[in-house]
Amino acid sequence: MRVEKAMFTRVEATAPWGISSPGERGVKFVLVVRGTSTLTMPDGPAPIVLRGGDVFITLSETPYEIYDEPGSRLLDCAEVLATQVDDTMVVGGGGAPTTFISGAFHIDDPDARPLFSVMPRFLLLRAEEERTRAFESVLDMLSRETGRRAMGFEAMIGRLFELLFIHAVRAYADQETAIPKRGWLGAISDAQLRDAVRAMHGDLAHDWTLESLAKQAGMSRSAFTARFKQSVGQTPLDYLTRWRMHRATQLLQRDGLSLAEIGRSVGYRSEAAFNRTFKRAIGATPGQYRRDLSAPKA
To answer: Is the pLDDT reported for residue 138 higher than 50?
Structure first.
């Protein structure tokens, strides 16, 4: 996945202050650099107090309000943007300071769909939670790069957004939570299933059977099937077919690969079998899908 249309602002706020965001398409994140603030969302949890080092991420057009204290006047994002100079906005009444970085970016939808389908719409990563040194270094670099306009800083920030998102997904996968993780992320997070899922993902061309996948997991076929379906919501072989078709749609966007080569790369020695499975899953034959991709848009 690659970040597209990355935007960011550094907000220097002093009490009293408050900002209301209507929500934005794509991935939105806020990193608190210093100070404290309170976050509320219409359909979200109770008000959340944020402190330096905390990060929250939204993956949908979720409106939210962020402020220093309840009752502080809320400015619409458009009003705050009017104060922007270069990449910094200054708001508030001159009291206790809070600094945060607000960023938004888009990710190519076809590649991101399997990930977004299993991620929560809201993700909070606390500073006090154990985070890897690499994750902390990304946050530190993001804080420093947005505080100055050194040569190449926009390219740096785009790459840091990608790393921030990857580390956020990792941190979420490692979190112990009462809410079970869904789909393939649930399987990857399950110590008994992850080896089988990694084997599937790593070699889609292999002639996988239920027995060979259960062997990868070190389980009986019946126990493996039951645990996989409970965690992912599909049988292992249904999941394998779905992932093969997703990979095939990616390969069909590339020039130079024939339909037969793509079919073999995702486990189908017979082009006819590949065509049937692809049409059943996607609603068009591989050839039709490729032609639709290259057809001029109206």
So the answer is: yes
The tens digit of pLDDT for each residue in 153-189 reads 777 877 888 888 888 888 777 776 645 676 778 888 7
Q: Which pLDDT tens digit goes with each residue over 31-44?
A: 899 999 999 998 77
Q: Which of 77, 74, 66, 73 is nearest to 35 (CA)?
A: 66
Residue 13: other Cβ atoms inside 10 A: 26
- The CATH architecture that domain 3-174 belongs to is Sandwich (2.60)
Q: For 176-191, b where at least 16 C-beta lie within 10 A, e where not — what string?
A: eeeeebebbbbbbbbe
φ, ψ at 276 (rounded to 5°): -65, -45
The pair of three-digit structure tokens given for residue 50, joined into one six-digit string: 């944020």
Distance CA 55, CA 10 (A): 14
| Domain 183-294 CATH (choose: 1.10.3810.10, 3.40.50.1820, 3.40.50.360, 1.10.10.60) | 1.10.10.60
pLDDT given for residue 294 in this prediction: 79
Closest CA to 50 of 28, 33, 63: 33
**CA-to-CA distance for 220 and 58, rounded, in angstroms?**
39
Residue ranges covered by each domain of the chain:
3-174, 183-294
